[in-house]
Amino acid sequence: MSEQFSKNFYSMFRARRITLEVRQSVSWAIRTGIIIGSLIFGLGITLGILIASGVPLASVYEEFIVFTFFNSAGLANIVVDSTPLVIVGLAAAAAFRINFWNIGIEGQFFMGVIGSTIVVIFDIGPESLRLPIMLIFSILLGGIWAMPPAWLKLRLRINEVITTLLFNYIAYYFVLNQIYGAWKDPVDKFPHSELYEKVERLPGIGWEDVSWGVLVAGVAVGLTWWLIERSRFGIKSRFVGINPSMALAVGLPVSVITLISALVSGGLSGTAGFVVASSMEFRLTYGIAAGYGFSAIVIAFLAGNRPIGVLIVAFLMGGLYVAGDSLKVFYNLPDAIVGLIQAIVVLSVAASEFFVRYRVRIARYEEN
Protein backbone atom coordinates (compact mmCIF):
# COMPACT_ATOMS: atom_id res chain seq x y z
CA MET A 1 0.00 0.00 0.00
CA SER A 2 2.85 2.34 0.83
CA GLU A 3 4.50 1.60 -2.52
CA GLN A 4 1.24 2.27 -4.38
CA PHE A 5 0.81 5.57 -2.51
CA SER A 6 4.35 6.64 -3.48
CA LYS A 7 3.68 5.84 -7.13
CA ASN A 8 0.44 7.81 -7.10
CA PHE A 9 2.12 10.75 -5.35
CA TYR A 10 4.97 10.73 -7.85
CA SER A 11 2.67 10.48 -10.85
CA MET A 12 0.50 13.31 -9.56
CA PHE A 13 3.44 15.77 -9.60
CA ARG A 14 5.02 14.28 -12.68
CA ALA A 15 1.87 15.03 -14.62
CA ARG A 16 2.19 18.73 -13.90
CA ARG A 17 4.43 21.47 -15.19
CA ILE A 18 5.08 25.04 -14.13
CA THR A 19 4.57 27.65 -16.83
CA LEU A 20 5.15 31.40 -16.93
CA GLU A 21 2.76 33.69 -18.71
CA VAL A 22 3.48 37.32 -19.47
CA ARG A 23 0.79 39.56 -18.03
CA GLN A 24 -0.68 41.68 -20.80
CA SER A 25 -1.90 44.31 -18.36
CA VAL A 26 -1.44 44.81 -14.64
CA SER A 27 -3.88 46.85 -12.59
CA TRP A 28 -2.70 48.97 -9.68
CA ALA A 29 -4.62 46.69 -7.31
CA ILE A 30 -2.72 43.61 -8.48
CA ARG A 31 0.62 45.40 -8.46
CA THR A 32 0.03 46.76 -4.96
CA GLY A 33 -1.14 43.38 -3.69
CA ILE A 34 1.95 41.62 -5.05
CA ILE A 35 4.29 44.21 -3.55
CA ILE A 36 2.56 44.02 -0.15
CA GLY A 37 2.67 40.23 -0.26
CA SER A 38 6.40 40.31 -1.04
CA LEU A 39 6.97 42.77 1.80
CA ILE A 40 5.08 40.53 4.23
CA PHE A 41 7.14 37.55 3.04
CA GLY A 42 10.39 39.44 3.64
CA LEU A 43 9.25 40.68 7.05
CA GLY A 44 8.26 37.12 7.98
CA ILE A 45 11.79 35.87 7.28
CA THR A 46 13.16 38.88 9.15
CA LEU A 47 10.98 38.06 12.15
CA GLY A 48 12.37 34.53 12.23
CA ILE A 49 15.95 35.81 12.12
CA LEU A 50 15.30 38.30 14.93
CA ILE A 51 13.70 35.67 17.17
CA ALA A 52 16.56 33.27 16.46
CA SER A 53 18.98 36.07 17.42
CA GLY A 54 17.37 36.41 20.83
CA VAL A 55 15.14 39.43 20.25
CA PRO A 56 11.86 39.07 22.23
CA LEU A 57 8.84 38.79 19.98
CA ALA A 58 6.93 41.46 21.91
CA SER A 59 9.79 43.92 21.44
CA VAL A 60 9.98 43.51 17.68
CA TYR A 61 6.73 45.39 17.14
CA GLU A 62 7.66 48.12 19.60
CA GLU A 63 11.19 48.79 18.34
CA PHE A 64 10.82 47.87 14.68
CA ILE A 65 7.45 49.48 13.94
CA VAL A 66 6.16 51.78 16.71
CA PHE A 67 9.43 53.49 17.67
CA THR A 68 10.48 53.88 14.05
CA PHE A 69 7.30 55.00 12.29
CA PHE A 70 4.95 56.19 15.07
CA ASN A 71 7.31 58.22 17.21
CA SER A 72 8.35 61.83 16.65
CA ALA A 73 12.06 61.15 17.14
CA GLY A 74 11.88 58.04 14.95
CA LEU A 75 10.08 59.87 12.15
CA ALA A 76 12.62 62.68 12.33
CA ASN A 77 15.45 60.18 11.97
CA ILE A 78 13.72 58.66 8.95
CA VAL A 79 13.38 62.09 7.33
CA VAL A 80 17.07 62.81 7.96
CA ASP A 81 18.20 59.48 6.51
CA SER A 82 15.80 59.49 3.58
CA THR A 83 16.52 63.07 2.44
CA PRO A 84 19.75 62.22 0.53
CA LEU A 85 18.22 58.89 -0.52
CA VAL A 86 15.43 60.75 -2.30
CA ILE A 87 17.91 62.88 -4.25
CA VAL A 88 20.21 60.03 -5.31
CA GLY A 89 17.13 57.98 -6.22
CA LEU A 90 16.02 60.82 -8.51
CA ALA A 91 19.54 60.91 -9.98
CA ALA A 92 19.38 57.22 -10.86
CA ALA A 93 15.84 57.50 -12.23
CA ALA A 94 16.75 60.44 -14.50
CA ALA A 95 19.48 58.36 -16.14
CA PHE A 96 17.88 54.92 -16.14
CA ARG A 97 14.70 56.03 -17.89
CA ILE A 98 16.71 56.62 -21.10
CA ASN A 99 18.80 53.46 -20.56
CA PHE A 100 21.88 55.40 -19.52
CA TRP A 101 23.07 53.09 -16.74
CA ASN A 102 24.74 55.56 -14.43
CA ILE A 103 26.67 53.44 -11.91
CA GLY A 104 28.83 56.46 -11.05
CA ILE A 105 26.46 58.14 -8.62
CA GLU A 106 28.92 57.81 -5.73
CA GLY A 107 31.63 59.52 -7.78
CA GLN A 108 29.27 62.35 -8.72
CA PHE A 109 28.21 62.53 -5.06
CA PHE A 110 31.90 62.92 -4.10
CA MET A 111 32.29 65.70 -6.64
CA GLY A 112 29.30 67.46 -5.11
CA VAL A 113 30.96 67.36 -1.70
CA ILE A 114 34.22 68.54 -3.28
CA GLY A 115 32.36 71.49 -4.82
CA SER A 116 30.98 72.49 -1.42
CA THR A 117 34.37 72.04 0.21
CA ILE A 118 36.11 74.22 -2.37
CA VAL A 119 33.75 77.06 -1.48
CA VAL A 120 34.40 76.46 2.24
CA ILE A 121 38.20 76.27 2.04
CA PHE A 122 38.66 79.25 -0.25
CA ASP A 123 35.84 81.35 1.30
CA ILE A 124 34.17 81.98 -2.04
CA GLY A 125 31.45 84.61 -1.93
CA PRO A 126 29.91 86.56 0.96
CA GLU A 127 28.80 84.64 4.03
CA SER A 128 25.13 85.44 3.39
CA LEU A 129 25.34 83.63 0.02
CA ARG A 130 27.75 80.89 1.04
CA LEU A 131 25.16 78.06 1.07
CA PRO A 132 23.63 78.89 -2.35
CA ILE A 133 27.13 79.12 -3.84
CA MET A 134 28.03 75.75 -2.30
CA LEU A 135 24.90 74.24 -3.84
CA ILE A 136 25.70 75.68 -7.27
CA PHE A 137 29.28 74.37 -7.16
CA SER A 138 28.02 70.94 -6.08
CA ILE A 139 25.48 70.75 -8.91
CA LEU A 140 28.03 71.88 -11.50
CA LEU A 141 30.79 69.50 -10.45
CA GLY A 142 28.41 66.55 -10.10
CA GLY A 143 26.90 67.23 -13.51
CA ILE A 144 30.26 67.75 -15.20
CA TRP A 145 31.54 64.46 -13.75
CA ALA A 146 28.72 62.59 -15.50
CA MET A 147 29.41 64.08 -18.92
CA PRO A 148 32.57 62.22 -20.05
CA PRO A 149 30.96 58.75 -19.73
CA ALA A 150 27.91 60.00 -21.66
CA TRP A 151 30.14 61.46 -24.39
CA LEU A 152 32.19 58.23 -24.58
CA LYS A 153 28.99 56.23 -24.99
CA LEU A 154 27.68 58.45 -27.78
CA ARG A 155 30.90 58.98 -29.70
CA LEU A 156 32.90 55.80 -29.12
CA ARG A 157 30.15 53.34 -28.07
CA ILE A 158 31.93 52.61 -24.79
CA ASN A 159 29.64 50.99 -22.23
CA GLU A 160 28.67 53.57 -19.63
CA VAL A 161 28.51 50.93 -16.87
CA ILE A 162 32.28 50.57 -17.13
CA THR A 163 33.13 54.25 -17.51
CA THR A 164 30.83 55.55 -14.77
CA LEU A 165 32.11 52.84 -12.41
CA LEU A 166 35.73 53.77 -13.15
CA PHE A 167 34.95 57.44 -12.61
CA ASN A 168 33.87 56.50 -9.07
CA TYR A 169 37.42 55.36 -8.35
CA ILE A 170 38.95 58.48 -9.89
CA ALA A 171 36.77 60.69 -7.68
CA TYR A 172 37.48 58.56 -4.61
CA TYR A 173 41.25 58.64 -5.02
CA PHE A 174 41.15 62.36 -5.71
CA VAL A 175 39.37 62.78 -2.37
CA LEU A 176 42.03 60.64 -0.66
CA ASN A 177 44.77 62.72 -2.25
CA GLN A 178 43.23 65.94 -0.96
CA ILE A 179 42.33 64.90 2.58
CA TYR A 180 45.72 63.28 3.12
CA GLY A 181 47.38 66.29 1.54
CA ALA A 182 46.42 69.92 1.00
CA TRP A 183 42.95 69.68 2.52
CA LYS A 184 43.86 67.76 5.69
CA ASP A 185 42.25 69.32 8.74
CA PRO A 186 44.84 71.73 10.19
CA VAL A 187 43.30 71.41 13.67
CA ASP A 188 43.27 67.68 14.46
CA LYS A 189 45.51 66.51 11.56
CA PHE A 190 43.11 63.67 10.73
CA PRO A 191 42.37 62.74 7.08
CA HIS A 192 39.33 64.92 6.52
CA SER A 193 38.77 68.50 5.53
CA GLU A 194 38.35 71.36 7.97
CA LEU A 195 35.02 71.67 9.75
CA TYR A 196 32.41 73.80 8.00
CA GLU A 197 31.57 77.07 9.73
CA LYS A 198 28.07 77.80 10.98
CA VAL A 199 27.19 79.87 7.90
CA GLU A 200 28.19 76.89 5.74
CA ARG A 201 25.75 74.50 7.39
CA LEU A 202 22.09 74.05 6.55
CA PRO A 203 20.07 75.24 9.56
CA GLY A 204 17.54 73.02 11.28
CA ILE A 205 13.80 73.44 10.86
CA GLY A 206 13.13 73.02 14.58
CA TRP A 207 12.22 69.32 14.56
CA GLU A 208 14.94 67.13 16.05
CA ASP A 209 17.90 66.95 13.62
CA VAL A 210 15.89 67.66 10.48
CA SER A 211 17.50 70.43 8.42
CA TRP A 212 16.48 72.52 5.44
CA GLY A 213 17.98 69.77 3.30
CA VAL A 214 14.45 68.37 3.27
CA LEU A 215 13.38 71.50 1.35
CA VAL A 216 16.19 70.90 -1.16
CA ALA A 217 14.95 67.32 -1.61
CA GLY A 218 11.36 68.53 -2.03
CA VAL A 219 12.35 71.05 -4.69
CA ALA A 220 14.38 68.32 -6.44
CA VAL A 221 11.34 66.02 -6.48
CA GLY A 222 9.10 68.78 -7.86
CA LEU A 223 11.50 69.86 -10.60
CA THR A 224 12.36 66.29 -11.61
CA TRP A 225 8.67 65.34 -11.68
CA TRP A 226 7.90 68.28 -13.98
CA LEU A 227 10.89 67.53 -16.22
CA ILE A 228 10.12 63.82 -16.54
CA GLU A 229 6.33 63.69 -16.40
CA ARG A 230 5.09 67.00 -17.81
CA SER A 231 7.69 68.68 -20.00
CA ARG A 232 8.24 68.10 -23.71
CA PHE A 233 11.74 66.89 -22.87
CA GLY A 234 10.23 64.21 -20.63
CA ILE A 235 8.02 62.90 -23.44
CA LYS A 236 10.98 62.75 -25.82
CA SER A 237 13.23 61.08 -23.26
CA ARG A 238 10.57 58.44 -22.61
CA PHE A 239 10.53 57.67 -26.33
CA VAL A 240 14.34 57.44 -26.36
CA GLY A 241 14.25 55.04 -23.41
CA ILE A 242 11.70 52.76 -25.07
CA ASN A 243 13.27 52.60 -28.53
CA PRO A 244 16.35 54.76 -29.21
CA SER A 245 16.72 53.51 -32.80
CA MET A 246 13.15 54.50 -33.64
CA ALA A 247 13.57 57.83 -31.83
CA LEU A 248 16.64 58.55 -33.96
CA ALA A 249 14.78 57.52 -37.11
CA VAL A 250 11.94 59.98 -36.48
CA GLY A 251 14.39 62.82 -35.92
CA LEU A 252 14.62 63.11 -32.13
CA PRO A 253 17.98 64.46 -30.88
CA VAL A 254 18.98 61.28 -29.04
CA SER A 255 22.51 62.51 -28.28
CA VAL A 256 21.29 65.79 -26.82
CA ILE A 257 18.65 64.04 -24.71
CA THR A 258 21.24 61.57 -23.41
CA LEU A 259 23.70 64.33 -22.50
CA ILE A 260 21.02 66.40 -20.75
CA SER A 261 19.77 63.36 -18.83
CA ALA A 262 23.33 62.52 -17.74
CA LEU A 263 23.87 66.15 -16.71
CA VAL A 264 20.65 66.13 -14.65
CA SER A 265 21.58 62.82 -13.05
CA GLY A 266 25.05 64.01 -12.12
CA GLY A 267 23.73 67.36 -10.89
CA LEU A 268 21.23 65.61 -8.60
CA SER A 269 24.00 63.35 -7.26
CA GLY A 270 26.09 66.42 -6.55
CA THR A 271 23.10 68.00 -4.80
CA ALA A 272 22.86 64.97 -2.52
CA GLY A 273 26.56 65.43 -1.71
CA PHE A 274 25.89 69.04 -0.76
CA VAL A 275 23.00 68.06 1.52
CA VAL A 276 24.98 65.38 3.35
CA ALA A 277 28.09 67.56 3.69
CA SER A 278 26.26 70.68 4.88
CA SER A 279 23.66 69.07 7.16
CA MET A 280 25.15 65.81 8.43
CA GLU A 281 28.94 65.46 8.11
CA PHE A 282 30.00 69.16 7.95
CA ARG A 283 33.24 68.22 6.15
CA LEU A 284 34.70 66.11 3.37
CA THR A 285 35.57 62.55 4.45
CA TYR A 286 36.64 59.50 2.48
CA GLY A 287 33.54 57.53 3.53
CA ILE A 288 30.93 60.22 3.01
CA ALA A 289 29.47 58.66 -0.17
CA ALA A 290 29.60 55.02 0.90
CA GLY A 291 26.45 53.08 0.04
CA TYR A 292 24.54 55.85 -1.71
CA GLY A 293 25.23 54.50 -5.19
CA PHE A 294 23.77 51.08 -4.40
CA SER A 295 20.79 52.60 -2.60
CA ALA A 296 20.08 54.90 -5.56
CA ILE A 297 19.93 51.96 -7.97
CA VAL A 298 17.57 49.98 -5.74
CA ILE A 299 15.31 52.97 -5.11
CA ALA A 300 15.03 53.86 -8.80
CA PHE A 301 14.30 50.23 -9.71
CA LEU A 302 11.59 49.78 -7.08
CA ALA A 303 10.06 53.16 -7.96
CA GLY A 304 9.89 52.38 -11.67
CA ASN A 305 12.02 55.50 -12.35
CA ARG A 306 9.14 57.77 -11.31
CA PRO A 307 9.82 60.74 -8.99
CA ILE A 308 6.81 60.22 -6.69
CA GLY A 309 7.65 56.54 -6.42
CA VAL A 310 11.24 57.50 -5.56
CA LEU A 311 9.96 59.68 -2.73
CA ILE A 312 7.89 56.84 -1.24
CA VAL A 313 10.53 54.13 -1.64
CA ALA A 314 13.30 56.34 -0.23
CA PHE A 315 11.18 57.11 2.83
CA LEU A 316 10.53 53.40 3.46
CA MET A 317 14.19 52.57 2.93
CA GLY A 318 15.14 55.31 5.37
CA GLY A 319 12.77 53.70 7.86
CA LEU A 320 14.46 50.35 7.28
CA TYR A 321 17.87 51.89 8.03
CA VAL A 322 16.60 53.62 11.19
CA ALA A 323 14.98 50.39 12.40
CA GLY A 324 18.26 48.56 11.81
CA ASP A 325 20.15 51.14 13.85
CA SER A 326 17.62 50.77 16.67
CA LEU A 327 18.09 47.01 16.70
CA LYS A 328 21.85 47.44 16.94
CA VAL A 329 21.55 49.88 19.83
CA PHE A 330 18.88 48.10 21.90
CA TYR A 331 19.84 44.46 21.28
CA ASN A 332 23.53 44.67 20.33
CA LEU A 333 22.92 42.86 17.07
CA PRO A 334 26.03 42.70 14.85
CA ASP A 335 26.17 44.71 11.65
CA ALA A 336 26.09 41.48 9.64
CA ILE A 337 22.68 40.46 11.02
CA VAL A 338 21.22 43.93 10.52
CA GLY A 339 22.60 44.08 6.99
CA LEU A 340 21.14 40.63 6.26
CA ILE A 341 17.72 41.73 7.50
CA GLN A 342 17.78 44.88 5.38
CA ALA A 343 18.91 42.93 2.32
CA ILE A 344 16.14 40.33 2.73
CA VAL A 345 13.43 42.98 2.90
CA VAL A 346 14.82 44.90 -0.09
CA LEU A 347 15.32 41.76 -2.20
CA SER A 348 11.84 40.49 -1.36
CA VAL A 349 10.27 43.70 -2.60
CA ALA A 350 12.57 43.78 -5.63
CA ALA A 351 11.58 40.21 -6.51
CA SER A 352 7.95 41.27 -6.62
CA GLU A 353 8.64 42.82 -10.04
CA PHE A 354 8.98 39.30 -11.46
CA PHE A 355 5.50 38.34 -10.27
CA VAL A 356 4.13 41.65 -11.50
CA ARG A 357 5.35 40.89 -15.02
CA TYR A 358 4.68 37.16 -15.07
CA ARG A 359 1.86 34.89 -13.95
CA VAL A 360 2.91 31.48 -12.60
CA ARG A 361 0.62 28.58 -13.54
CA ILE A 362 0.77 24.87 -12.73
CA ALA A 363 -0.63 22.95 -15.69
CA ARG A 364 -1.14 19.28 -16.45
CA TYR A 365 0.62 17.59 -19.33
CA GLU A 366 -1.74 16.58 -22.07
CA GLU A 367 -2.02 12.80 -22.32
CA ASN A 368 -1.97 11.31 -25.82
What does this protein look like?
With 368 residues, the protein is mainly alpha-helical. The chain has a domain at 75-317: ABC transporter involved in vitamin B12 uptake, BtuC (Orthogonal Bundle), CATH 1.10.3470. It contains 14 helices and two strands. It has helices at 2-14, 28-52, 57-69, 72-96, 105-121, 130-156, 160-179, 213-230, 232-242, 244-249, 254-281, 292-302, 307-331, 335-357; strands at residues 16-22, 358-364. Strands 1-2 form a two-stranded antiparallel ribbon. α5 (105-121) runs parallel beside α7. It starts with a helix and ends with a strand.
Keywords:
globular; two-stranded antiparallel ribbon; 71% helix; 2 strands; mainly alpha; 14 helices; ABC transporter involved in vitamin B12 uptake, BtuC; 368 residues
